[in-house]
Each structure stands twice: as structure tokens, then as C-alpha cells.
Amino acid sequence: MKILSSYSIKGGVGKTALAVNLAFALREAGRRTLLLDLDPQGAATFYFRVASAEKFRMRDADSLAEGLRRNIRESDFPGLDIIPSNLGYRHFDILLDGMAKRRKQLRKVLEEFKPDYDVILMDCPPNITLLSENVFRASDAILVPVIPTVLSRRTLDQLAGFFRDEDLPDGMLRPFFSMVQKRNRMHREIMDDLPVSYPGFLKTVIPFSADVEKMGLHRMPLLAYSHASTAAMAYRALCGEILSLAGP
Amino acid sequence: MGGRVQNKESVRLTLPGGFGPECLQEEWDVDIHPQESQTLAFWDTFEWGLWFGGHILYSSGGAYHLCAREGGWLGAALCEERAGTRRRFWRDFETGAMRARLERMLGLRGLAPVAEGTFRLRRCDVRNSVGKIVCRLEWSSVSAGKRRDEDLLHSCRVLPLFGYEAETARVVEHLVRRGARTSGDGPVETLLRHVGRVPRKYTLRPVFGLEMDTPAREALGRIVCAILEIAERNVPGIVNDLDTEFLHDYRICLRKARSVLSLVKDVYPAEDTRRMRKILGDLARQTNRLRDLDVYLLARDEYMGLLPPVLRPALEGMFRDFSTEREREVRRTVSKMRAASTRRLLREVAEYFSPETHHEPSPAAGLPVGALVFRRIYKRYLKIRGIAAGIGAETPDEAVHRLRIECKRLRYLMEFFAELFPKEEGAEMLRLLRRLQNRLGEFNDALVQQRSLMNYWEQKRSGSKIALGVGGLVAVLYRRQQQARGLIDEALEGFCGGSTAAAFKHTFKQPVSN
């Protein structure tokens, strides 16, 4: 089982669009996939028309695993399940803080889902907290959407700095360009330049697309309603690239 | 503990005709997909090995599909295999998964078509107020044959999506209020019933419904009739040469019927008994050669395995000869069995033992069967002990052969009348008897096979290569015979030893009477 996360310190960069469409592409590729929506905003949950998770008490790793398990919902697409978001997740930090080996608890909880899934994909809230650190330590790869702008570059550098400070393996960071407008000169320049400093940069590029924005109207992944659009193909290619990195 | 608990239990409903999934639209959004229609041909063995093994096999669109059976419904698909030609035995299948599953359930049995039905299916998605699918439906109807005929059954399978079980239960409740039922035959069972092919267990050991005081003639008549009926049921399978088990069972039935008549004497007039036994013997004899050939050909792989690879090609010619002879022998046997004379003889025996037939009186006809048979069983057991006592390492093979025949007779007696003695004690005595019989059988098979191989070679006087193969095989079989002989003593001890003897005495010895 592989654990992937969709993460960015900065909001509005296409993080949830990645989580939702990558999850769909993974089940298309035959991987039993569980999407775990950790973002209290619950956008991924909304896209799959699933209600918020029921509240549950999180005292320790066992009760956390049990609560998550009770909240698994089968999506409309066979092979893809979702654990919906819950405002209560904002207390994750406090919960984890109270546990022994608090920085590795999430991995232990997710290991319990191993028999049923090939991939767990987490959609993470855009901040750096103890939860984020748990996410980093639980993941096999952290997928970071980067809009080719100066500000995005700055936040990526910040994240890399955090990884260095905390002795996290920086090979886990897998940035890729998101919401790219090929005609924008600044986008082109940054795209030429930035990957040089990040050897883990993924090659697939997700273009900006009005189709992606319509996900809110359709309330389903782009790949489900616009199967052959350019952006859908790009997500599928990204999925292929990630699977080739991660092994089977 | 696993993550997602896999409890996706679907609910199966049978429906009254005349309402469709549209009835759910009062409360839910229902996407109804276009109707699919498929004609399925179902396959099983004479013994319904797949059905009673919890499976259903069907072919459709050039492929065989093996599914789990859930009551009378098609369950989860387990494996499939594309096939250009018809498959009969498990060996005819090519994929490993299919072969492994079928071997267990088919054994030597062949597959035959049991029914054909056309299934029409409408898949539906049921959505809640925000448009999320909460369950899927498979709304279907079945009719017999290929054409759209009269619908035999309407049914619906409700598949909950994980995490939406409560909402699914509401959908089911709604359908039940409209007349759907959670019980009733499923579509496959309904189809089978419609075409008159209700699966029923097949056994060579039926229950005869005997009591200790059933008059002997009535008891014997019932036994012979039941056994002859089983023999009759096997005839079509022999005539169509579907598999080798039909002939095997047919012969067992004839032998058993013949045997019971001599085991319990004086129940019918002696002259009649002789005639019936002769008929049954003649009928069985017609099929001797075919059965021999079946046995050789079934043992082909085993024989090959006994020889080093370099000698195996030498035997190919022999098996080719057997195969050719078998084809001839099947034709001969089938025409014999179809012949009016054979049919007449079988009918004569059946009529003789039918309850309506009037017979001349005979000494034991009215005696209570229990005491009569128990005396017989005990006497035969003592006889076996007597023969066994004389058996040593130097005893000629003939004595061992006699012992084998006696054991077989005792076994038949005990099996015919098993209803009359306590189950548990009987089971233990029969277990020990079976073990002894197996040892004796191994010994005898090795002996008989050597003889028939030598016979084959003498008739053919074929080239040195075949002689080498046959010689090699005979040597191995002789070794096997000796080993089997060594094991007989131990089995004899178990069957003739003190505790078994006590059990026989306790169960079967009758108070002395005149």
C-alpha cells in the first residue's frame, strides 16, 4: 500500500483538484483507492457529494482508526472510497500532541487500512502544524502543486527549508506545475528555472482549465464528466508518472 | 483488524410482475440504464456436483463462467474461460483457476446442459437528495429458452454502497411495501423448476424405510426396486457415453440387487430367485469389457507415472489400442442396451419385485427382516474371521480373493440394512470393514492388472518396445501387490480383533431360537 498526500502551504493552487482527480485516475488504473479528506473546508468531500463525517472521539490511535473506519463511504465510482472531512479534524493536532511518538501516529493508524486499499491519498489543509508533520512522516510521497509564480516559488522554498530543519527526507517532496498558462511569459521562465533546484520535480504539467473550475457545478471529478479534456489527460499522465515512481 | 469492513451484503428480492424501478422515483432519483439481455446455458453433472458444491456454471457468448451459488441465485463471478468448443470434463478446461475448482466438484463426472434461459437486466442507480448514489439495483426477469417467452420470475438485487446501509434498508422497505419478497426461489432455481430439472441429491445408498419387523419379502422387494430404479436412471448416461461413472454405477446396482437375493435366502421361491439372479448377472456381463477398458484408460496417467520417462512412449501404443477398442465396445454396449431383449429383461426384473406382483409362498417371506438379516450378518462376520484365521504369508492368492468376496457381501448386507442398527456402532464397524476392503482391493487390483497386461501382450505379441513397457509395468505392479499383501494383516487385525468381534456380537447376535 502506498500513502500519498496532496499538500501545499499556500491555498488556491489546485491541491484539492489534484486529490480528487488523482484519486479517480488511480481507481481507473485499477488501484483500490481511499481518499482521506483532512482539510476542514471539505472541498473534496463536497465534490463527491458525501456528507461530513460523523463526530467521533479521538482519544488514542485505536479510537482514531475506529472513527475513521466508521466514516468510510463508497463513492459513486467503484474502487474509490472516501473518508469525508469533519470540522473536528481541526483538533487532530491537540490529539496527536497528547500521544507518545506523536510525530508518527498517523502512519500507524493508516497501516490498519492496508488489507483493503492499494493507495491512500490524503488531501491536507494548507498549513504547517503537527498534523502536517504527521502527514509528512506517514507519506511515501508528498505531491505539491506549484503555480509558476514568484510567490509559489517562495512557499516551495519554505517547505524545503522545513524538511531540512526537521530532518525529513527531501526526496519525498514531489512538486509539479499546476494551473499553468503556457502564454504567460513569467510562467514559462519559472518553469525553465525552478526544477533545476528540485531534482524530485515531476515532469507532467497540469494546465489551467475552466473545465476544472466547473467541478463544483458537476460535483464530481473532472475525469468523470470530461473524460477526454486536456486537463483530464494531464491528470491521467500525472497519475502514470506517480505510479512509475512509486513502483506497483 | 482490517480497515474497511467488507460487509457489502446485497439483498435479493422476488417481485410481483407489473412494477418497475420507476416506483422508487417517488422518493429517490433513479437513473435507469438501458436494458441488457443475455441467454445463458447452464451446465452441471448428473449428480449436480456443482449445484450441491455451491456453484453455478453457465456458458454465454463463447465463454464459460463459474459463479458462486447463493440459494437459487447467481452469486459472485469466480472465474471465466473463453472456449471455442464444448467442455465436458474438468481436464478440458485450460485456465488453472477453473480446473482447480472444477476438479474438486466434478471428479470423473462429465458436464451436460441442464437448462437455458434468457435474462433481461436493467441496472439502476438510486440517489439521495444531494445526488449521491446510495445503492444500485439489478432489476431482472428470466424466461426459458432463447426467445422472449413468458417471464417466469421478476427479481431485484439491491447492492448497498459502503457506508449507505441505512438508506439502502429504506429502499428495500419501500419495495417490500410494494409486494417484493425476501424469500422464494431465485431466478436460476425457478428456471430449473420450469424445465423440470430440480436438483436432487444422487446416492447409491438410498433410505428404504425399513423397520425390524418389516416382513422380509416386503423389505427385499423395496430394496431391489429402489436399486433397479437407480440403475435405470444411469442408462441414458451410458447410452450417450457422457462419462464413465454411469456404467460403473449401473453395474454396482445390478451387482447389489443380485447379491441381496442370495444373501437373504428363502424369501422368494428358489426357482424365481435363480432366474432373477441369472438375468441380473447376464445384464452386468454385457458390460464387462467396456468397464475393464474404462478402468485401464482412467489409470493411464497413473501407469505412465510408474514407469521411467524413457519407457513411457512404449505404452502409448497400448493405450491407443485400448482407446480404439473402447470406441467399438461403446457402440456394441449401447446397441445391446437399446435392444428390445435387454429392455425386456430389465422390465421383467422390475415387475417381478414390484409390490403388486403376486408370488408363490416361501419359508422366509413373512419373517421379520431384522432378526433374519442380523443372523445373516453375524454368520458372515464369523465366516470372515474363519477365513482370516487361516491367512498367513504363504496363503495362496485364491484365499485372499475369497476373503475379498466375503467382505464385499458383508458390506452390501450391512449397507442395505444400516437403517436397522445403531448409527454410531455401525459406522465404526463399517469403517474398519472399508479399510480392510481397501487393502484387499489394492492387492486384487495389482494382481488383476498384471494378468490383463500379460494377456494384452500375449494377444498382440507386439514389438520389443511395447514388451519392455508392459514388462516394466508388470514388475512395478507385482511389487505393489506384495506391499498391499503386507498391509492386509494389520487391517485384518482391526476388523477381526477382540473389540470389533464384541461389537458384532453385541449388535447382531440373536438369541437362539428354532
Could you tell me the CATH topology label of the largest domain in chain B: Hypothetical Protein Pfu-838710-001
Task: Classify the secondary structure makeup of chain A into a structural class.
Answer: alpha/beta
Radius of gyration of chain A: 17 Å
Largest interface: A-B, 19 and 15 residues
Number of helices of chain A: 12
Arithmetic mean pLDDT of chain A: 90
Number of strands of chain A: 8
Described by strand count, sense and barrel closure, the largest sheet of chain A is:
8 strands, mixed
What attributes characterize this protein structure?
heterodimer, A: alpha/beta, 8-stranded mixed beta sheet, globular, B: 514 residues, alpha+beta, Hypothetical Protein Pfu-838710-001, CHAD domain, 9-stranded antiparallel beta sheet, 16 helices
Structure in words:
Chain A has helices at 15-28, 43-47, 61-70, 92-97, 105-111, 130-138, 150-165, 185-193, 210-213, 215-218, 222-225, 230-246, and strands at residues 2-6, 33-37, 73-74, 80-83, 119-123, 141-146, 173-180, 205-207. Chain A is of the alpha/beta class. Chain A has a single domain (2-246), classed as 3-Layer(aba) Sandwich (Rossmann fold). In chain A, helix 1 packs across helix 12. Chain A starts with a strand and ends with a helix. Chain B has 3 domains: 11-194, Beta Barrel (Hypothetical Protein Pfu-838710-001), CATH 2.40.320; 203-367, Alpha solenoid (CHAD domain); 369-514, CHAD domain (Alpha solenoid), CATH 1.40.20.10. Chain B is 54% helix and 16% strand. Classes of the chains: A alpha/beta (248), B alpha+beta (514). Chains A and B meet through strand 3 of A and loops of B.
